[in-house]
Design goal:
The protein is mainly α and about 425 residues long. It has helices spanning about 20-55, 55-85, 85-110, 115-145, 150-175, 180-200, 215-230, 230-245, 250-260, 265-290, 295-315, 320-350, 355-380, 385-405.
Length: about 425
């Protein structure tokens, strides 16, 4: 590795040391505001589509159009994050996403009721998000010193999940009291603070741009070879795919569960999504703790098993209040998969490969989400949403067994910070 990994015996730092760095805190806070707006939109648009079409497939289609560009643009996005100034990449992509959000708002105000037309800004926003995400994740490294990186990554997970809690419940309240237009408008405003911070924020140290005469696909290929030689990163990416394919559909299917199983309104729907995120926030301190007490292999194992148990539990009840507890439990388990896999990759990856490897992980994760969402939507329409949850829970338990059995080094490779992968 190009950076020396801090050992468990290193001097103990205050738990909130990373939040005392003004540049990181400003970025963290404005990202929280922006992502809260994003999650408001991510609930509002599917609600609009479901109201227009009455089909769970269109709810899944929103996820497909939103995340499909990540699969297509993943190789380019990772190279961009390594070769170009990440601050500039983030600024341009954030301004672009603001423009598409304004487009969605204008379409709603103009009375557009065609789901295909609504999908146009959704698709463009997905493309901009695909470019934004690797740069966003790698930018965290540019704001803090190496010894605070793990803490910064985990606080970033807290920020994302806090936004995922605040966004849906805020959207549910606004949808119930004022309608979709106001929720879409608040999302537009949420971009402005982050854009301003990106203009003025000071970096911990200048980004070292990767200069290469290789074409984009060759540079992306070198990242794939690197991952293949780093068993910890490889297994973490497999874990994130399992979470995206089988776990993440719970967010889109919460709309169907609320309407067809629990028979509740928009406010209760927002609360269900809030419980998912509050569960996630509740276990983040475990990931931020000492590796000797709560290794990342344990986080991933508990996460897959817990999500499976939560899903199976949801198939056994139609009571909203019991389901609320199970949503909280499932959210706690699911974040152990997602944040655990992200932390593994950030801790192991070499600096010169950071953007590309994070892009591969994001591409695989985001590519799995729409496949899972569309599959869940199809099964929900034809058999029932609880049938999907039961099948997903069983498949996750099978996947957990295979994750222990098939890899040469098994889950322990997730805990090895010296697993550096092959050279380029």
């Amino acid at each position: 590795m190009t950076d020396e990994v801090v050992s468990e015996q290193a001097p103990r730092r205050p738990r909130f040391a990373v939040m005392r760095r003004r540049s990181y805190f400003a970025f963290w806070l404005t990202a929280l505001i922006s992502n809260t707006g994003m999650w408001m939109s991510n609930l509002t648009v599917p609600v609009i589509l479901y109201a227009i079409t009455g089909s769970a497939v269109w709810v899944g289609a929103f996820t497909l159009f939103n995340f499909l560009p990540t699969i297509v643009l993943g190789p380019i996005a990772g190279v961009i994050a390594d070769r170009f100034d990440r601050r500039h990449v983030l600024l341009l992509s954030q301004i672009g996403m603001l423009a598409t959000s304004i487009g969605l708002l204008l379409m709603w105000l103009g009375g557009v009721d065609s789901p295909w037309l609504i999908m146009i800004p959704v698709l463009v926003n997905g493309a901009l998000s695909a470019v934004n995400t690797p740069a966003f994740l790698a930018f965290v490294h540019d704001l803090v010193p190496r010894e605070l990186l793990r803490s910064a990554v985990n606080y970033n997970s807290i920020q994302f999940n806090l936004a995922r809690a605040l966004g849906p419940v805020s959207a549910g309240f606004i949808l119930a009291t004022s309608g979709p237009g106001w929720a879409l408008a608040v999302n537009c405003l949420s971009f402005i603070p982050l854009i301003l911070v990106l203009i003025f924020v000071r970096l911990n140290e200048p980004q070292v741009l990767v200069k290469s005469a290789q074409r984009i696909l060759k540079q992306f290929g070198s990242a794939l070879r690197y991952i293949k030689g780093a068993s910890g990163i490889e297994l973490a990416i497999i874990g994130s795919v399992i979470g995206g394919l089988l776990g993440q559909p719970i967010f889109s299917m919460s709309i169907v569960l609320a309407h067809k199983v629990y028979h509740v309104g928009a406010m209760e729907l927002g609360l269900l999504n809030m419980y998912l995120s509050l569960g996630a926030i509740s276990v983040i301190p475990l990931l931020a703790g000492k590796l000797s007490w709560f290794p990342l292999s344990r986080a991933m194992s508990w996460g897959v098993a817990g999500t499976a148990v939560g899903f199976i539990g949801l198939t056994l009840t139609s009571n909203y209040y019991v389901a609320s507890f199970l949503f909280f439990f499932t959210g706690a388990a699911l974040i152990l998969i997602m944040a655990g896999s992200a932390t593994v990759v950030q801790m192991i990856v070499r600096n010169d490969m950071r953007g590309r490897v994070l892009s591969v992980r994001q591409m695989m994760f985001m590519g799995a989400i729409p496949i899972g969402a569309m599959t869940a939507g199809y099964i929900a329409d034809h058999v029932g949403v609880q049938v999907f949850l039961l099948g997903a829970g069983i498949l996750m338990l099978i996947a957990l067994v295979l994750m222990y059995v098939i890899p040469t080094r098994g889950m322990k490779s997730l805990d090895d910070p010296h697993d550096e992968g092959v050279e380029q």
